[in-house]
Amino acid sequence: MTDVTATLVPLSDKLYKHLTHFTEAYLIGPKKFCFPKNGPLIVANIQHFKARDDDVCVVTFPKTGTTWMQEIVYLLSINLDFERAKSNIRETVLPYVDINVWEEPLDDFIEFTNNLPSPRLLKFHLCYSLLPPDVKKRCKDQEKVIKEVAAFLNLPVDKEGIKQIANHCKFDNMKHNTTVNKSDWDEMLYQKEFKFMRKGIVGNWRTEMSPELITKIDKWIFDQTIDTPDLRDILY
How many domains does the chain have? Predict the structure, then answer.
């Protein structure tokens, strides 16, 4: 069984100065991943999540192109039925299973997911070591990525279909697509000046952080991954 031991970060910790929307923060598991107040309960519950042989899971770090990747997977799974895609809010067809780790309680997506017919499309932001026991590049050349994803899923798609998906998944098109842009989340979960669909620019974090902060974060990550050389190879 996965170790999901949770330790409360003292409210006096300077972490809260940076995560102002956290009323509580927990370090979970041997790797001490940081979660908001609902993290311990949701992570523990997810350990009992029953995967199926034909599940398709999109597993990513937050804000690393998840919505883009899930749209590619979804379109491939419905055989490029763009009209059908216009009518389905993505959370109903590709649910974010671990969403309730956040501060604001939402619908029970674990129960919702359990009742979905197969094959299911699922999304997780949990780190690999905290995923359920039985569930274990982003690229400028979108068409190449789409082709690779289709091959991985064993779903047929021709060159024209790949071009259609690539156009559909352009950032500006997705930003104005209400079935994927999570505009309803902006008012519910985020500060008014923040939008879920931001700029779609790889590396834009460099404009949001000072060089000193970037150096500090890089050092912390490097120190914390000393026992995980494979992860270091990905990060550095």
Answer: 3
Query: For the whole prediction, is pTM greater than 0.70?
Result: no
d(CA 235, CA 233): 6
pLDDT for 51-68, tens place per residue? 888 889 898 887 788 888
Helix, strand, coil shares of the chain, percent, nearest 5, are 45, 10, 45
Instruction: Give the model confidence (pLDDT) of 188-209 as tens digits.
Output: 555 556 666 666 666 677 887 8
- Type of residue at 145: V
Question: Domain range holding 222?
Answer: 202-235
Terminal alpha carbon distance of the chain: 30
In a shared domain, residues 222 and 163: no
**Is residue 15 exposed (0-12), middle (13-18) or buried (19+ Cβ within 10 Å)?**
middle
Q: What phi and psi, each to the nearest 5 degrees, are found at residue 7?
A: -120, 125
- Residue ranges of the alpha helices (H) in 99-141? 109-114
Residue in 17, 35, 15 with CA at minimum distance from that of residue 26 = 35
How far is Cα 102 from Cα 72, in angstroms, rounded to an integer?
26
The total number of residues shown for the chain amounts to 236
Same domain (yes/no): 139, 101 = yes
Give yes or no for residue 139 having a pLDDT over 80. Answer: no
User: Do residues 148 and 38 share a domain?
Assistant: no
My answer on whether 85 and 101 are in the same domain is yes
Q: How far apart are CA 97 and CA 214, in angstroms?
A: 31
CA distance 29 to 7: 9
Same domain, 72 and 98: yes
Q: Is residue 181 within 8 Å of 175, Cβ to Cβ?
A: yes
